[in-house]
Design a protein that fits this description.
This protein has 228 residues and is an alpha+beta fold. Helix content is 54%, strand content 12%. Helix 2 packs parallel to helix 5.
Length: 228
């Protein structure tokens, strides 16, 4: 695949070239878990993530510098490569069966990678928690109203049950909403602490009579990079 990657970089001027797996000669268990892993990754973070994922890619010098400048403490390199947004070409191949040894990429490591990718590049879990809090709070308020009407108009044979349920539902609903709001603040704090580039500048255009503040970004000799 290296020759195809070099051709895409030099002849077609792609700054990122990714070797994406179109299939794999592995056990049914690994195929199913990998498909589930990348399905969730596409739904929660990167829609452009290949269905079979990828392990190897080529970066221009500018892409490599942007990757190293924005890498996290617990990096998810596939996500970082896609996050940069450079002009990218996907090359597909079929992953052959391993001839020797056994894979060390266990289910636990896949789960850890999924959490790293989702928590580093998506606010979906916090938004889901906030939405769930609002839904449950609304249902709790409606049910509390029904209990109050039932106790007031129809009577409730169980003494003390109605006010107790109303307090539990109302307070629980408010707690879930507050947790969602706190999560939103924590996500914004985390984004600020990471100090990732807000934008990756492709080129700078200005008049010839104006002094150049900095040279336009130009791709220079490539660097090879592979995910482990």
């Amino acid at each position: 695949m290296v020759n195809d990657m070099l051709k895409a970089f030099f002849n077609e001027e792609y700054e990122v070239v990714i070797c994406a797996r179109a299939g794999r000669d592995e056990s049914r268990y690994r195929i199913v878990t990998s498909r589930l892993f990348y399905y969730l990754m596409r739904k929660l973070t990167f829609r452009e993530m290949p269905k079979g994922g990828f392990d190897f890619w080529l970066l221009s010098r500018r892409g490599l510098e942007a990757l190293l400048r924005n890498v996290d403490v617990n990096p998810f390199f596939q996500g970082h490569v896609l996050w940069m947004g450079f002009r990218t070409k996907m090359l597909t191949y079929r992953r052959r069966e391993r001839l020797a040894g056994t894979s060390q990429f266990t289910f636990g490591k896949k789960l850890n990678g999924l959490l790293a990718g989702v928590l580093q590049f998506s606010f979906a879990p916090i938004r889901i928690m906030s939405l769930a809090g609002c839904v449950f709070a609304l249902l709790g308020f409606i049910y509390a109203g029904l209990i109050f009407v039932d106790a007031l108009l129809l009577g409730n044979p169980v003494k003390g049950w109605s006010p107790l349920m109303i307090m539990v539902l109302v307070i629980g609903g408010f707690q879930m909403i507050m947790l969602g709001i706190m999560g939103e603040y924590l996500w914004r704090t985390l984004a600020q602490v990471r100090q990732r580039d807000i934008y990756l500048i492709d080129a700078i255009y200005q008049r010839e009579d104006e002094p150049r503040s900095q040279p336009a970004a130009v791709a220079t000799p490539l660097e090879m990079s592979a995910g482990l």
